[in-house]
Design brief:
The chain has 375 residues and is α/β, with parallel strands linked by helices. It contains 17 helices and eleven strands. Bound molecules: iron/sulfur cluster. Iron/sulfur cluster (SF4) binds next to helix 15 and helix 16.
């Protein structure tokens, strides 16, 4: 398949791996930010091609995984109300709340629907003016423009029965939190290419300077990831800490200015709670004052609902690169994709689901072996 096969070429992968082995002289720990990258690493065995000194740990870039339990509970509360059509991407339907998930709300008679775009939810609202249509707006900077567009169009067309439950998070503040933690062991990042198609990468430049970490904007195919690791290790070996762009076929430094303008109009930056990680200052988006009428939390009076995370699930440590799924006692036993305890086992982008699918057996070089949990 054109534009895919050439990024999965085994001979080219072997050449990159050899080049990486040649330049690596010390131990380095890198974090891939995005859950999509984690899945590609596991699926194609990219980590097995790396020199033994290079360890990849998995970052917080799975939007379903970092959506806090209390937002899941708010979604369940709204979805169960009569007269509501609750729309969501498919992954969120299986994320467990305290006692139920969106599938069980649907089984009990709630009108819960899977959509592929927030604009589909807006279309439903226009078709059913007698119903309240709510879209669960989960995601990083990548999905924010489409969600902003849905709200913008609803406002322009006067669609009063449409609202969104916002769970948007931002990547740079999460990287700042990881780098500022006393337990941090990340020395370089593979930044998520799709986030940077929207936002560009100027926001990462102060982070690289302040914390002396190389950041390489990286794509999602095996050769993208190998090249991203190579560029990151080369910087570390040369004592450099810069932002470089491996994903130049899709990302420009300034990003997509039109999308950024729309997001800035519809949303404002707020503190946000990340699942398992806690509150991170200025790390999320909420609707701006001008669009607050479209805020489902206000419309349905659920803004004050709080919920604690289940104690057994260590996804918070996994999302910070401090553990791997093999370090969780419930992995593959009490917690499986069929009966998930935490969101990182549910989501297609979750690290626990990736390990369950591709790496149920622990390898000798599993980074959990160098866990700093409890350190
Ligand atoms: S295996 Fe399940 S319980 Fe353990 S960290 Fe992953 S999601 Fe949480």
């Amino acid at each position: 398949m054109r534009f895919v096969d050439e990024y999965r070429d085994p001979d080219a992968a072997a050449r990159y791996a050899q080049a990486l082995h040649r330049i690596t002289t010390r131990r380095w720990t890198l974090m891939e930010i995005c859950g999509g990258q984690t899945h590609a690493i596991m699926k194609f065995g990219v980590d097995e091609l790396l020199p033994p000194q290079v360890t990849l740990v998995h970052g917080p870039g799975c939007p379903v995984c970092v959506t806090p339990l209390e937002l899941v509970e708010k979604a369940l509360e709204i979805a169960a109300r009569p007269g509501v059509v609750f729309c969501s991407f498919g992954d969120m339907l299986r994320v467990p709340g305290r006692e139920r998930d969106l599938r069980s709300v649907k089984a009990a008679g709630g009108d819960v629907r899977i959509v592929y775009s927030p604009l589909d939810a807006l279309l439903l609202a226009r078709k059913h003016p007698d119903r309240e249509v709510v879209f669960f707006a989960v995601g990083f900077e990548t999905t924010a423009p489409a969600n902003a567009m849905a709200v913008h169009q609803a406002a322009r067309a006067g669609v009063a029965n449409f609202s969104i439950l916002v769970s948007h998070v931002l990547v740079p503040p999460a990287m700042e939190a990881i780098l500022s933690s006393p337990a941090n062991r990340v020395q370089g990042f593979l930044a998520a290419g799709h986030v940077c198609t929207v936002m560009g990468y100027t926001e990462y430049e102060p982070l690289a300077r302040k914390h002396r970490v190389p950041i390489v904007v990286t794509g999602f195919e095996p050769l993208d990831i190998l090249q991203g690791v190579f560029m990151c290790v080369r910087q570390l070996e040369e004592g450099r800490a810069e932002v470089e762009n491996q994903y130049a076929r899709a990302v420009r430094r300034e990003g997509n200015a039109a999308a950024q303008r729309l997001v800035a109009e519809v949303f404002r930056v707020v503190p946000r709670k990340w699942r398992g990680v806690g509150d991170i200052p200025q790390s999320g988006l909420a609707l701006s004052e001008r669009y607050r009428d479209f805020d489902a939390e206000l419309r349905f009076g659920v803004a004050d609902l709080v919920a604690d995370e289940p104690a057994e699930c260590i996804s918070g440590l996994i999302l910070q690169g401090l553990e791997t799924p093999h370090g969780c006692g419930a992995f593959g036993t009490r917690c499986t994709p069929e009966r998930p305890l935490g969101a990182t086992m549910v989501s297609n982008e979750g690290a626990c689901a990736a390990y369950y699918r591709y790496r149920r057996v622990r390898l000798e070089r599993d980074p959990a072996g160098s866990s700093v949990r409890g350190a």
